[in-house]
């Protein structure tokens, strides 16, 4: 059975954040709130945890998983970002956007897209997620919490707890989240390309 932490959405309790990070460090899968939907996250470098996460989500290695980063400087460690891209990212982060960028060698090969060598990255605007990232001192690997054969994400923490009690190691109750996922922008071409319209305003990218 998974653990269940109620964490304050604006002032996360450090004691619980530290316990959550310990669970992640030990190979756990965590369901947590973001500035869009709830997400499933795990340790970036834990191959077994990544496999479990994909199985829960019902996706294969062709599906982009996302690195949740603390800030733009962390993004630049894992993705190749030129000056033009950097200006756009700076205007849109933190916020409900996921960016597809060319992966650097810092990204484990199994995590980048097998054919394109790209990776999804975001800087979420959520106090709980940010506190976890600060304590962990590296990105989390995540994906929107949509279960196999379902179209809508799970957004209520009690429902997440009920549905995933035997599948994840921790559910963080930080209140209900939006039903709308992130806006996904592909930044690998000459101009930004909209992949999925979500919460984020595309006008920042001239779309």
Automatic annotation (TrEMBL):
Residues 14-200 form the YrdC-like domain. PROSITE patterns: YRDC (PS51163). PANTHER family: DHBP SYNTHASE RIBB-LIKE ALPHA/BETA DOMAIN-CONTAINING PROTEIN, THREONYLCARBAMOYL-AMP SYNTHASE. The lineage of its organism: Bacteria, Pseudomonadati, Pseudomonadota, Betaproteobacteria, Burkholderiales. Pfam families: Sua5_yciO_yrdC. It comes from the Bacteria. InterPro entries: DHBP_synth_RibB-like_a/b_dom, Sua5-like_dom, SUA5_domain. It comes from Undibacterium umbellatum. This is Threonylcarbamoyl-AMP synthase.
């Amino acid at each position: 059975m998974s653990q269940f932490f109620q964490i304050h959405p604006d002032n996360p309790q450090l004691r619980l954040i530290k316990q959550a990070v310990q669970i992640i460090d030990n190979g756990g899968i965590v369901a947590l709130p973001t500035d869009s939907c709830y997400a499933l996250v795990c340790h970036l470098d834990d191959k077994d945890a990544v496999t479990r996460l994909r199985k829960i989500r019902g996706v294969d290695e062709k599906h982009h998983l996302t690195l949740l980063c603390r800030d733009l400087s962390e993004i630049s460690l894992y993705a190749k970002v030129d000056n033009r891209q950097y200006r756009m990212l700076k205007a849109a982060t933190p916020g409900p956007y996921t960016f597809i960028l060319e992966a650097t060698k810092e990204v484990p090969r199994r995590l980048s897209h097998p054919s394109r060598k790209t990776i999804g990255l975001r800087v979420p605007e959520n106090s709980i997620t940010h506190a976890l990232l600060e304590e962990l001192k590296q990105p989390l690997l995540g994906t929107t919490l949509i279960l196999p054969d379902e179209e809508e994400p799970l957004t209520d923490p009690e429902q997440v707890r009920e549905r995933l009690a035997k599948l994840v190691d921790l559910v963080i109750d930080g209140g209900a989240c939006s039903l709308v996922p992130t806006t996904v922008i592909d930044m690998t071409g000459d101009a930004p390309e909209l992949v999925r319209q979500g919460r984020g305003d595309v006008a920042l990218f001239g779309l």
